[in-house]
User: What shape does this take?
Amino acid sequence: MVTTTFHDASFSSSSPSSSYSLSFFSILSFKEPPLFQSLTLPSHNNVYICWTLTRSNWTVEPLSHKSKAKVVMFLGRLGSNTRQCGDILVNGRRQALAFGTSAYVTQDDTLMMTLTVREAVYYSAQLQLPDSMPLSEKRERAEMTIREMGLQDAMNTRIGGWGHKGLSGGQKRRVSICIEILTRPKLLFLDEPTSGLDSAASYHVMNRIVGLAQQDGRTVVASIHQPSSEVFELFHNLCLLSAGKTVYFGPASAASQFFSSNGFPCPSRRNPSDHYLRTINKDFDTDVEQGFNGQTTTTDEVINVLAQSYKSSETCQQVQRRVAEICKREGAPLEKKGSQASFLTQSFVLTRRSFVNMYRDLGYYWLRLAIYISLCLCVGTIYFDIGSSFGSIQARGSMLMFVAAFLTFMAIGGFPSFVEDMKIFTRERLNGHYGVGAFVLGNSFSSIPYLLLTSLIPGAIAYYLVGLQKGAEHFVYFGLVLFVCMMLVESLMMIVASVVPDFLMGIITGAGIQGVMMLNGGFFRLPDDLPKPFWKYPMYYIAFHKYANQGFYKNEFEGLTFPNNLAGGPATITGEEILRNTWQVEMGYSKWVDLAILFGMVVLYRFMFWAIIKTAEKVKPIIRAFLATPPKQKAQIMETPSST
Assistant: This one.
């Protein structure tokens, strides 16, 4: 048995809103009485939520959509604008839930839309299940989980999204549940599993969830929005909260008698859940008609009457005594249910999954490849057969600068697709599927073939149409610099995505950063002419365009000779003189050093992305703890026994 205790705990959100009215429903009968003690919320607009659970399936239905979101956020995972006070104990100790013990399915179905149901669940199984389990068993676990959620007929159907019709909303929600129950967690949090579904689909989804709760004694905590009468009939126990007060907690079948005995009977042919919520909902502060004498009373008065009636009941007293007894116990440390796959396995699986996603997502690389080919055809025809005249010196420099700056600049076109990957990574990371390092390596290795493709094919078109310096070594170097620059821009956009998750703001930010680097990269303003305090030191050496331009120039001009049209000069001018005097290139090292510096910047940027994610994970809890303030009133004590 695992007991989770929220002792004098409170959670507050800084988001401005009205006071919330909340109700809790629990599904399935209990093997022992549920443990719940009176809940008191502050009177100001910030919300403090606490509750208890037992070995059962719980659902949370809000009177307010915003209040529901905060309840599940507090219960499943704290948000960045949430403050926490008090003690949260597992088996009476301060310890984290072990991997495989709990899982959280968010309201938004954050799934990789290019994968089929079978692929999505199987990849997740390889990430979460230990290496000691054979692949055949992992595949069988994945397919069995899919069948448990009734998705066997959609195994080979792509999940789908904005560009491709795939699964329905209810099926996507069940896929999300499949992914999180692969490890057979003891505690599963579901945020609105019926959101956006009709009554029939809602019933089937909830019926599957009931089956999950019954199987293996699993505890499922779910929020549900406006349950139909069929869904409500699945509930065995019911808890109603409103304005921070416990209105009712007991068998769902006895709730109607409780309301009737206090003067608020449920009319015939009305959904009981609708009646209960309408009676205690104070969001609109409407008057409620009493059944005994037909008089009306305010919602506040109704809540007070029902709360006082529940407080004086024997059920409430029994629950309080049971909670106090369990709070005095201190259980054993929580045993780990299992281990994840190894780092190498996770990196390999993420690489393969990301490669498949990039191949099937037209907007990730294929559209960019088509645009690159079109642009390089334009460049090749504009600078066609550039020759070796004196005027070709400036033309070669301009053409190479366009390739180094503007072609690589367009690598930000894949930023929206990467933002979607980041959403999936955030969800899976918070649920402990894999680490940041495995994600960085998987994304890096999976993108290499596509970046090589988008650099070599358009690069060859531009290189040979223009007639740049002949020789396989020169073209290979040209293609490698273009490839590394594209990877470097993608690495830069990864850093931007970790700081600015919104894709529109991210594109603007990334474009601005690249614009600054491009401006002081040594072409628009020669290096010796840059103002030294800031633009020369350090910005000129930070901009990757410096090394890309110089590498391209050395690769192109070294070994060539051009006629000299300048009066009073020699008849010819060498490429080395052009590099030194015209482009002010640093000639103290070879072009391969520039390429190595660019590659080092790729590694540095990827490491910075990893460091930002890891730092944010460490710093956010510290900031939350620093901002936490003691509640003005004592909060709920919560107990969560869950059978193993």
Summary: The two ends are 5 Å apart (CA to CA). The chain has three domains: 34-102+194-339, 110-184, 343-623. Residues 15-76, 631-644 have pLDDT under 50 and may be disordered. Residues 131 and 342 are 7 Å apart (CA to CA).
